[in-house]
Design brief:
It is globular and about 65 Å long. The protein is built from five helices and 13 strands. It has a single domain (44-183), classed as tt1808, chain A. It is an alpha+beta fold. A hairpin with a 2-residue loop joins strand 1 (33-36) and strand 2. It has helices spanning 3-6, 15-28, 47-66, 94-97, 120-133, and strands at residues 33-36, 39-42, 69-72, 75-78, 83-85, 89-93, 102-104, 110-114, 138-143, 148-156, 159-168, 173-175, 181-183. Helix content is 30%, strand content 34%. A six-stranded mixed β-sheet has the order 3-6-8-9-10-11. A three-stranded mixed β-sheet has the order 5-4-7, covered by helices on one side. Strands 1-2 form a two-stranded antiparallel sheet. The model has no long low-confidence stretch (mean pLDDT 92).
């Protein structure tokens, strides 16, 4: 190695960019991964989890089309943080989603997270706080561990100012404008 290379100065590493680059490569290779406060989380949802997601997704389908929105679980970036989420469901306007590989989280009109044993605390605390900080108008938490659902609204820096719940499964979820949708939770 030459003296010149031995004394080369390295540029500082942008940790946020490096982590987000890595999680995107994992997702492109078929691994379902997200970053939560700088830590990688690899997910493999159970069938019970997917059942809960399908019930909510099906209830939202018609209204999402009417609103010209896409419902899915695509990549959501939280710029300026070491967070890159793959929500169970996000509702995003079609014109924004068209051609996008990822979107900033503040483009979501609604985010739904369904808890699993391995990540319930992340969905209840960390994601709720971050979705509110980034201005997501509605956050619906389906808590399979507790058997409840909670709808958070009115985003503020600490998370959300309004909390409707927790309500036990079997209680109907009523989503406000622009959705005006009722979701039967008895099958979750």
């Amino acid at each position: 190695m030459s003296a010149r290379n031995r004394h080369r100065e390295y540029l500082p590493v942008d940790r946020e960019a490096s982590l987000k680059y890595a999680v995107q490569r994992l997702n492109e290779s078929g691994v379902r991964a997200q970053l939560i406060e700088g830590e990688f989380e690899i997910t493999a949802p159970t069938w019970d989890h997917e059942n809960a997601v399908d019930i909510v997704r099906d209830a939202l389908a018609r209204r999402a089309r009417e609103l010209r929105c896409v419902k899915g679980s695509g990549n959501l970036d939280l710029p300026g943080t070491e967070n890159w989420y793959l929500p169970d469901i996000a509702i995003i306007p079609q014109e924004i989603a068209r051609g996008a590989k990822s979107l900033p989280v503040d483009e979501a009109l609604l985010v739904v997270e369904v808890t699993s044993e391995s990540n319930a605390a992340d969905d209840r605390v960390k994601k709720r706080r971050r979705y509110g900080q980034f201005g997501v108008p509605l956050y619906l938490l389906i808590d399979r561990i507790d058997g409840t659902w909670t709808l958070f609204s009115d985003p503020v820096h600490e998370g959300y100012a309004q909390e409707d719940g927790p309500h036990p499964f079997g209680t109907t979820i009523t989503l406000p404008e622009p959705f005006n949708v009722e979701i039967d939770t008895s099958g979750i």
